[in-house]
C-alpha cells in the first residue's frame, strides 16, 4: 500500500486510503454531507459511555461547516474493536449499504455516518437519552411495567420490521440496544453490527465467531453454516429474549458462560422462562419466538400485530393471571404463505417426513377463499375428477409452484464446494424466485427455481451410512467395529438439510452419540435391501447396542442347550448300550463308570460353563 492510493469506485461513497496516519489509513473524502463519510478531524471523542461486545460507545462532537454555516453537535459514536487493515475497506463498503437503506426510518437509530479514528471504524449516530437497558437498571427489581413493555414492543417491532423489509437482519436485539428518544419512544440502536463484521477476519477469533450476544442468540445463530441458516425469524428469538428480560428483570441465561449457553440453547434445546400473568396473545407469541426450528417462529409482522392488539389494554392482576394449561399455541409455520386464487395446492406433508400421511388432495387449484379475520381460514380447492370444489382449511395444504413446495429437498445444478449439494427449499415465490437453506451457508441461498432439481428426502428414523464414494466426509463419522463406516439413524433433520444422526448400535452417552451428516454424502440402509443373512444381522445390530450382547448370550445359550441335548442323547444311548452288554469282571465295571462320567461332565463343554449350568439345575437327567 506504501506510496499508493487506492480509491473506491463506489459512486456514492468515495474514499481513498493513503499512507501517512498511524495505521497507514486516512480517508480523503469527496462527498457531500449526505454521504456517510465523516472526516476524522471533524469528530472529537469526549468520553466513553459504554462498552459492548463489538466495541465502545463514546459521546463525541461533530463539527460541521460550510461557508456560511458552522455547527458543533453532540453525537454518539460506536468505536468498533480493531479489525485488520485490509478488511477496513470491506467493512466501510458494507456500512455504506446499511446507511443508504436505513434513512428515514422512524423507529431506527439515526445514523450520521462513519469515520476512522486511530484505525478503528467509528459509527456516528444520534445521541439519545439512554437505552431501555439503562431504564431497567434504574427500576426496582430491574423490570418494566407490562404497560411500558407493550408500548415499547410496538415501537421496536415496527423498527425491526422496517429493517427486515429493507433486507437487514439485526442479530443483536437486546434491551441495551433499544434506545429511548425525547418522547420516550423506543428506537432500534446499534443495528447491523454483527453483519457488518461478519465474514471479516478479525483479530479476536472469539468476536469473529460470534454473531450476536450469547444470551440473546437463537440456536441457529451458533455456527449458522451448520445449525442455520440465520433468517428473519432469528431476530424473533432475540426479540422474545428481550421482552422476557424487560418483563422479568432477569437476563436470559444470566450468569452462564457462552459455552454453557451454547449447550443449553443449541444442543439441549432449552428455552428462556416466560413470566406468568401476560395477555394470551403475548404468551402465544413468546412461545412461538422460542421454537427451536426457526420456520416455526412468528415473523416480525406477526409479533407487531400481537403487541398492537394488546397495547393500551388495561390488565388488572386477576384478569391477567391467565391459566395457560391446555392452551393450543399457534403453529406459525402454517401462516407464512398466504394462498391466492389460482394457486396449485396439495395435502401438506408433515415436516421431516418422506411420505404424506394422507394424500387427500394429490393436487388441486384454489378457486375460492373464506376470510377468517386475522387467522387462517378455509379455501375451496377444485380437484380433477370431483364435480364440486372441496372446502379445506388452509393449514391442511401446501402451495406447489413449478413443481416445488417449501420443505422439499432440492439440489442446485451449479455446485459449489463450500456448500452441500442438497438443501431444503424454504420459499418459492409465484414468479419463480426461491430461497434454500444449505449446509455451509450462513444465510439462505437466493436463486431461481430453474436452477433447482428435486433431491432425495430424508426423514427421522431412517438408517444411513456414508456412500462408498465418500472418503473424507464433511462431518466426523464413526467406524464400525472391524472395518467400514458405521450405520446410524436420523434423529433430526435441520432446516438446512443437515442430518443429526445417532448410532444406537454403539454404546455411548449424551453428546458422544450425536453426529452430523451432509445429506449428499449418505445413503439409506434398510433391512429389506440388506443382502444376505450376515448383512441383515448387521442391520439388526445397528438398531441398538444391546442387540450384539443379546445375540452373543443367545448364541451361547443355544450352544449350551445343544451341548446338553447331544450330551443327553449320547448318555442315554450309552446307558442303553451298557444295559445290553453283559458286564463282567472289574474291567467291565470301570468302563461303565467312565461312561457315566462322560454324561455328567461332557468334555466338549468348558469346565466353567458346565459348572454354571449344573449349579442352575440343568443337570442332565440320570
Ligand atoms: N446512540 C446512542 N445514544 C445514547 N446512548 C447510546 C447510544 N448507543 C449506545 N448507547 C449507550 O451505550 C451503552 C453501551 O452500548 P453498546 O452498544 O456498546 O453496548 P452493548 O449493547 O452492551 O454491546 P454490543 O451492542 O456491542 O453488543 C448502551 O447501554 C447505551 O446506553
TrEMBL record:
Keywords: ATP-binding, Membrane, Nucleotide-binding, Transmembrane, Transmembrane helix. Residues 43-315 form the Protein kinase domain. PROSITE patterns: PROTEIN_KINASE_ATP, PROTEIN_KINASE_DOM. InterPro entries: Kinase-like_dom_sf, OCM_Kinase, Prot_kinase_dom, Protein_kinase_ATP_BS, Ser-Thr/Tyr_kinase_cat_dom. The chain crosses the membrane at residues 545-567. SUPFAM superfamilies: Protein kinase-like (PK-like) (SSF56112). ATP binds at residue 78. Pfam families: PK_Tyr_Ser-Thr. One of its GO terms (molecular function) is ATP binding. This is Protein kinase domain-containing protein. It comes from Musa balbisiana. The lineage of its organism: Eukaryota, Viridiplantae, Streptophyta, Embryophyta, Tracheophyta.
Amino acid at each position: 500500500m506504501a506510496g499508493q492510493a487506492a480509491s473506491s469506485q463506489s459512486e456514492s461513497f468515495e474514499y481513498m486510503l493513503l499512507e501517512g496516519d498511524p495505521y497507514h489509513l486516512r480517508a480523503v473524502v469527496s462527498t457531500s454531507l449526505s454521504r456517510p463519510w465523516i472526516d476524522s478531524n471533524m469528530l472529537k471523542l469526549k468520553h466513553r459511555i459504554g462498552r459492548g461486545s463489538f466495541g465502545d460507545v463514546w459521546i463525541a462532537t461533530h463539527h460541521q461547516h460550510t461557508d456560511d454555516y458552522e455547527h458543533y453537535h453532540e453525537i454518539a459514536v460506536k468505536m468498533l474493536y480493531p479489525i485488520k487493515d485490509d478488511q477496513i475497506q470491506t467493512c466501510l463498503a458494507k456500512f455504506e449499504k446499511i446507511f443508504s437503506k436505513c434513512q428515514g426510518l422512524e423507529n431506527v437509530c439515526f445514523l450520521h455516518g462513519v469515520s476512522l479514528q486511530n484505525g478503528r471504524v467509528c459509527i456516528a449516530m444520534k445521541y439519545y437519552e439512554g437505552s431501555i437497558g439503562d431504564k431497567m437498571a434504574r427500576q426496582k427489581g430491574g423490570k418494566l411495567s407490562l404497560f411500558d413493555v407493550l408500548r415499547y414492543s410496538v415501537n421496536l417491532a415496527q423498527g425491526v420490521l422496517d429493517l427486515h423489509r429493507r433486507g437487514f437482519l439485526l442479530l443483536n436485539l437486546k434491551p441495551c440496544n433499544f434506545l429511548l428518544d425525547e418522547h420516550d419512544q423506543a428506537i432500534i440502536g446499534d443495528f447491523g453490527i454483527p453483519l457488518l463484521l461478519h465474514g471479516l477476519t478479525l483479530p479476536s477469533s472469539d468476536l469473529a465467531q460470534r454473531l450476536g450476544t450469547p444470551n440473546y442468540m437463537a440456536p441457529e445463530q451458533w455456527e449458522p453454516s451448520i445449525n442455520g441458516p440465520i433468517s428473519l425469524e432469528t431476530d424473533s428469538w432475540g426479540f422474545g429474549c428481550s421482552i422476557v428480560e424487560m418483563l422479568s428483570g432477569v437476563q436470559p441465561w444470566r450468569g452462564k458462560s457462552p459455552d454453557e449457553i451454547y449447550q443449553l440453547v443449541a444442543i439441549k434445546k432449552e428455552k428462556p422462562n416466560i413470566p406468568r400473568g401476560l395477555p394470551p396473545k403475548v404468551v402465544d407469541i413468546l412461545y412461538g419466538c422460542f421454537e427451536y426450528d426457526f420456520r416455526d417462529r412468528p415473523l416480525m409482522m406477526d409479533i407487531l400485530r400481537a403487541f398492537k392488539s394488546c397495547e393500551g389494554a388495561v390488565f388488572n392482576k386477576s384478569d391477567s393471571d391467565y391459566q395457560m394449561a391446555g392452551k393450543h399455541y399457534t403453529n406459525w409455520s402454517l401462516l407464512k404463505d398466504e394462498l391466492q386464487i389460482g394457486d396449485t395446492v396439495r395435502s401438506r406433508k408433515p415436516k421431516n417426513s418422506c411420505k404424506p400421511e394422507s394424500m387427500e388432495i394429490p393436487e388441486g387449484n384454489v378457486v375460492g377463499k373464506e376470510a377468517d379475520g386475522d387467522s387462517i381460514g378455509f379455501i375451496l380447492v377444485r380437484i380433477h375428477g370431483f364435480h364440486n370444489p372441496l372446502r379445506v382449511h388452509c393449514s391442511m395444504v401446501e402451495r406447489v409452484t413449478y413443481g416445488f413446495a417449501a420443505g422439499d429437498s432440492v439440489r442446485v445444478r451449479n455446485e459449489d464446494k463450500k456448500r452441500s449439494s442438497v438443501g431444503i427449499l424454504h420459499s418459492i415465490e409465484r414468479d419463480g424466485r426461491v430461497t434454500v437453506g444449505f449446509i455451509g451457508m450462513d444465510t439462505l441461498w437466493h436463486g431461481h427455481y430453474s436452477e433447482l432439481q428435486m433431491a432425495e428426502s430424508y426423514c427421522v428414523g431412517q438408517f444411513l451410512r456414508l456412500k462408498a464414494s465418500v472418503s473424507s466426509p464433511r462431518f466426523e463419522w464413526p467406524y464400525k467395529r472391524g472395518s467400514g463406516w458405521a450405520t446410524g439413524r436420523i434423529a433430526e433433520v435441520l432446516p438446512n438439510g443437515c442430518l443429526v444422526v445417532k448410532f444406537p448400535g454403539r454404546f455411548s452417552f449424551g453428546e458422544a452419540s450425536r453426529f452430523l451428516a451432509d445429506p449428499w454424502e449418505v445413503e439409506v440402509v434398510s433391512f429389506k435391501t440388506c443382502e444376505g443373512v450376515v448383512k441383515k444381522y448387521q442391520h439388526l445390530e445397528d438398531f441398538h447396542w444391546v442387540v450384539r450382547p443379546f445375540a452373543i448370550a443367545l448364541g451361547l445359550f443355544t450352544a449350551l442347550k445343544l451341548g446338553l441335548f447331544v450330551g443327553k442323547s449320547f448318555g442315554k444311548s450309552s446307558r442303553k448300550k451298557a444295559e445290553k452288554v453283559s458286564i463282567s469282571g472289574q474291567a467291565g465295571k470301570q468302563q461303565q463308570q467312565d461312561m457315566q462320567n462322560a454324561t455328567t461332565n461332557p468334555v466338549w463343554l468348558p469346565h466353567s460353563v458346565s459348572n454354571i449350568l449344573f449349579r442352575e439345575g440343568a443337570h442332565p437327567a440320570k
